[in-house]
Amino acid sequence: MSGTHNHRRNDLLDHIARYRITTLQVISELPAFRHKPQSSIKRTLQKLLRAGQLQRVPLFHNRNAYCPPRTRHSESGQLSESWKLRAYAMLLFCCQGTTSRERLTREELRKHFPTLYAPGRPMNYYIDHSGDSTRLGVLRVDVGGRGRWDRILGKAREDVLKHQGMAGVRDLITNGQFEVTVLTALPQKASRLCDTLASEFHPLDACIRVSSAQELLYLIAPPHD
Asked: How far apart are the C-alpha atoms of 170 and 180, rounded to whole Å?
């Protein structure tokens, strides 16, 4: 039993190292924990917290998140709201729903896509396994609320254009194995973006996808108690 427990614990630590943030709800859907009661998962989390292998941070309202123990992104030693939003967006995008996606770690990007790797570059790359062939993707998180879908689309097109100039990625674009996903909190905004993509026929738009995750609203505009 201890070997199985250690295996689950290591799976959980690997998951948190990859996504930088997670929640009890997401952990409950991981293969190693899918059929475990939440009380058992909470006990595992408590052991890791006591051992200093995790830290618990407030996410929104009454929900907490779990991060590696030394994830610090501000001079005050606290996680910045912007960092939290973008990390949580990647977690939701990859780990919620039926599409098989996985965030690329810095080490994986450096090994498999060295032309994309640079110290300080945002780590917003993912792999989508759901199609006939694997696709490399970039996640662009929209934090702007209700307006300016045209500006968001312009930024996504800039992302595609920038990657067209990179050796190794150019072939992926040609072969339909590269995408930029705009993730927005508002379904109506996602719908407007999709309508624009369908009507404008811009040459870069074949690489652009749109998705929504309403939970992001709680971080963009936290609910009042």
From this structure: 14
Q: Give the residue extent of every domain in the chain.
A: 2-73, 101-220
Can you read off the two tokens belonging to residue 7? Answer: 């295996």
CATH class held by domain 2-73: mainly alpha
The model's pTM is 0.89
H helix runs in 20-80, sequence order: 24-27, 38-50
Non-local CB neighbours of 52 within 8 Å, separated by 6+ positions: 69
Q: Read off the pLDDT of residues 36-82 as tens digits, 9 standing for 90 and up.
A: 899 999 999 999 999 999 999 998 878 899 999 865 454 445 678 88
The rounded distance, in Å, linking the Cα atoms of 147 and 82 is: 19
Long-range contact set of residues 193-202: C-beta below 8 Å, sequence gap at least 24: 193/149, 193/152, 193/153, 196/149, 196/150, 196/153, 197/153, 202/157
